Amino acid sequence: MRSSAPWGKNGVTTELLVRSDEVVFDRFRLEVMEGPDLGASCAADSPTLGIGTAPSNQLVLTDRAVSRHHCEIAVTPRGYLVRDLDSTNGTAISGVCVEAAYLQPGATISVGGTKLRFEVLSGKIHEPLAEERRAGPMLGQSTEMRRIFAVLPKVAASSTTVLLEGETGTGKRLLAELIHQQSSRASRPLVVIDCAAIPPTLIEAELFGYEKGAIAGAHQARAGAFEAARGGTVLLDEIGELRLDLQSKLLRVLEERRITRMGSILPVRLDVRIIAATNRDLRQDVNRGTFRSDLFYRLNVVRLHVAPLRERPEDIPLLAAHFYRQFTDGGEPPAELTEALLRHHWPGNVRELRSVVERAVLLGDPSLWREGPRGACPADPGDGRDDGEEGLGPGEASLPFREGKEQVVARWERAYLRTLIRTNEGNLSRAARAARMDRNYLRELLRRHGISAAET
User: Which of 75, 302, 307, 364 is least buried, going by the fewest C-beta atoms within 10 A?
Assistant: First the structure.
């Protein structure tokens, strides 16, 4: 499979080539043209290149106007995408401030007081892909999932700390369970702590345990998650929700590999593996000061990003067929259902897809899978209306398929978001729950389409 970007070096189209066992793409380089680090350069040796003052970036700058994690360049099927990571002073392309933009060779990127020149090189990067379409209970034939499947055996075989990033419903917990099951610790416990679900006043006790009388109602001593998982794995789910004061205690645990129960002075040595999961980009939280940079570096030893379902539509038929067989004892989904599923945006990701397939089986009619006006699933992009228009707009039928589809979907997104915000009276949290969508992602979509949360 070959995916071409809309521009290339010296007029030659830059291509992303996906083979049965690898993905191949052009290398690229950044060179500092202006600023304190004049003359410094960095050539990418992976699909992403981070820029900032933090030492974990590939291009590390000393410019004080640059954030710790300022921006990132990633190779995508559409080209080279630069994305600002909620930096303090923003990212500009040729003088225009952007949140995300595709780069052309020779483009000038401004970060703080530094100017960078982006160039595509002649060399190629070869990244391995798994040939299998599944790893344990996880399914996927997309490049994004096969990248994860390819590195999974090495990651599982080690005791390295792993950071899993991805939107709600993408399967991060399932991936954490798979890493544990394929590790040498599989016979020992996997203890899951949901940092978002436990009240802040209780999470320290849940993590570290307590002695009798240490907290209200503590009539006897109790081991915390780290002790209970001895020899096994602790999954810290939604780690981004952890309070700053507890972040410092967790950092100490990771560094010293021992904990102290609440109400005790005796340290307990630990033998556990740490996996952390989050639906946020912790680099942005580090820039905002809501997540400790030193804890991020400790967690970010191996970072796996689980892409949202809308960015890997080739996985939808595979997953839909899998869920359909589960709910029908081996049946195959009707073509009408699969076609409808491919048209949906999937704000709730794989979790939402499973619910939709279950509803379709229950109702016995593929055309009845969608929910009502407060739900997450309008019929399909073609049903959306924006300012009285429906279906294809003027001239859209004559556009190339990809470009025409993007315009129709963008119009549908705007109509959906306006209805969602209006229905929920501008309350972002309530709207995100109704759409089964991460609140930060909803805010990003509203900003992308120029819609104010105050619209009613």
Answer: 364
pLDDT tens profile 398-408: 556 656 666 77
Q: Contact 241/438 with Cβ under 8 angstroms?
A: no
Over residues 228-239, the mean pLDDT reads 95
Highest-scoring range by mean pLDDT, 88-92, 359-363, 441-445: 88-92
Evaluate whether 189 touches 225 at the Cβ level (below 8 Å).
no
- Around Cβ 360, how many Cβ atoms within 10 Å? 25
Phi, psi for residue 86 in degrees, rounded to 5:
55, 45
What's the whole-model pTM score? 0.76
Distances in whole angstroms, Cα of residue 2 to Cα of each of 19, 77, 119, 402: 8, 9, 22, 15
Each residue of 66-99: pLDDT tens digit?
Answer: 999 999 999 987 889 999 999 999 999 988 999 9
Q: Supply 141's token pair.
A: 């034939």
Task: For residue 210, give the DSSP letter.
Answer: B
Q: Is 288 left (phi over 0), alpha (psi -120 to 50) or beta?
A: alpha
Q: Which residue, among 77, 75, 176, 89, has the nearest Cα to 118 in the 3D structure?
A: 75
Q: 186-207: string of b/e by CB count within 10 Å (b at 16+)?
A: eebbbbbbebeebeeeebbbbb
Looking up tokens 């570290």 gives 208
Residue positions counted in the chain: 456
Q: Helix, strand, coil % (nearest 5) of the chain?
A: 35, 25, 40
pLDDT score at 384: 38
Buried b (16+ CB within 10 A) or exposed e, 430-445: bbbebbbbbbbbbeeb
Q: In this structure, are strands 48-52 and 22-34 parallel, antiparallel, or unpaired? A: unpaired
Q: CA angle, 373 as apex, 390 and 168 as ends, to 5°?
A: 105
